[in-house]
Specification:
This protein is an alpha/beta fold and 340 residues long. It contains twelve helices and 14 strands. Helix 1 packs across helix 2 and helix 10 runs parallel beside helix 11. The longest helix has 15 residues. The protein binds S-adenosyl-L-homocysteine. S-adenosyl-L-homocysteine (SAH) binds next to strand 10 and strand 12.
Length: 340
């Protein structure tokens, strides 16, 4: 079957011409697909014959809600979504002042092995297709009845480990005939695959790149992120500087505060040294405790001390506001509880 919703308008046009239909149908079909239809019959201005042909040759990858948790305090909604092959991923809807934001998954599972992350516990199952990443959005838009203006690729999976599908998704979601979400309203978070960061810098996409740094030295970072053994902190920061030089887009570093490991004043000093003079942003994230691990979140007091030290060294830093605390919206936990 043809994965029609993953096609660019150019690809769709070629396909439409190849089945003997006029070119203008491609634009019409593209618009319907990106309004989130779940059945070709919904394409009311497309002749019945073409609708039937499409439904015989093409599939509409959709997602369905398996579980939904709604925060009473801030309206955050966490979803467990199922694809046609039975695999599930998580996605989260959040209301911020700057607009409604959806956090989507890019893979079923993950093979990066970060010790504090629930999404990686059973390894990688498979990559998501562009149409499946779109399906996460369409299902959430339908369920909430809200519009979405921002996307973060921070759910399950390593986006740069599913590079081609993610780039295709970004172009599709940005298309003005589709959801039309501005690249500047999209953040992509990576654990730091250096060769892929370099490749991304050539795509000319004004998205925000978030890099999960979490520790300032090789010894400390390798202990919690196996990917660090492949690239190392120096190379990673060098790659980030090259990315900024090429794109002029400031990098946002994610830094998880783990008690006694990443949150000490020595680490604050090492981090300040590492980032000195580099125009970037550091986002401190209180660790979301996952049941199997002994790692503990830092105290608020320690987070504020750490933050003050970075500020003293001229580094732009914020503490991530935690939404959905009452629904356990932490990374990967809904799926983990479901499959185990
Ligand atoms: N693979 C990508 C994107 C998915 S993870 C990446 O590594 O960036 C999204 C963010 O959540 C990353 O910064 C990740 O390190 C962080 N994260 C994962 N588990 C966490 C936990 N238990 N507590 C706090 N942050 C966590």
């Amino acid at each position: 079957m043809i994965d029609i919703r993953s096609m660019s308008l150019d690809e769709l046009t070629k396909y439409i011409l190849s089945i003997g239909e006029p070119k203008y149908r491609a634009g019409q079909v593209f618009s319907w697909l990106h309004r989130g239809i779940s059945d070709f019959e919904e394409m009311s201005n497309i002749p019945k014959g073409l609708r039937e042909k499409l439904s015989m040759e093409c599939e509409l990858n959709t997602a369905t809600v398996v579980r939904r948790q709604i925060s009473k305090s801030d309206g955050t909604r966490k979803y467990l979504l199922k694809f046609s092959d039975g695999n599930c991923v998580e996605a989260v809807f959040m209301k911020y002042n700057h607009g409604n934001t959806v956090c989507i998954s890019t893979q079923v599972g993950c093979r990066m092995g970060c010790v504090f992350c629930a999404s990686t516990k059973n390894g990688l199952v498979r990559n998501l297709l562009p149409s499946e990443m779109l399906a996460e959005l369409f299902e959430i838009i339908k369920d909430t009845g809200e519009t979405v203006s921002n996307i973060v690729l921070m759910g399950t999976g390593e986006p740069l480990d599913n590079y081609d599908n993610v780039i295709k998704f970004l172009h599709l979601v940005n298309d003005e005939r589709g959801l039309n979400i501005g690249m500047r309203h999209i953040s992509l978070s990576t654990c730091g695959l250096c060769d892929k960061i370099e490749k991304l810098s050539s795509e000319n996409l004004p998205i925000t790149l978030s890099v999960s740094l979490h520790a300032p030295t090789d010894e400390a970072r390798s202990a919690i992120m196996p990917v660090n053994k492949a690239y190392g902190v120096r190379r990673l920061i060098g790659e980030c500087k090259a990315y900024f030089a090429k794109t002029s887009r400031r990098i946002s570093f994610e830094y998880t505060m783990i008690s006694g490991h990443t949150d000490t004043m020595q680490r604050a000093e090492e981090l300040s040294e590492l980032l000195r003079g580099f125009p970037c942003h550091v986002n401190l994230i209180p660790l979301n405790k996952i049941s199997e691990e002994s790692l503990l979140p830092s105290s608020n007091e320690q987070i504020l001390k750490f933050k003050a030290h970075l500020e003293k060294n001229g580094i732009a830093v914020t503490v991530r506001r935690s939404l959905g605390a009452d629904i356990d919206a932490a990374c990967g936990q809904l799926r983990q509880n479901y499959i185990s």
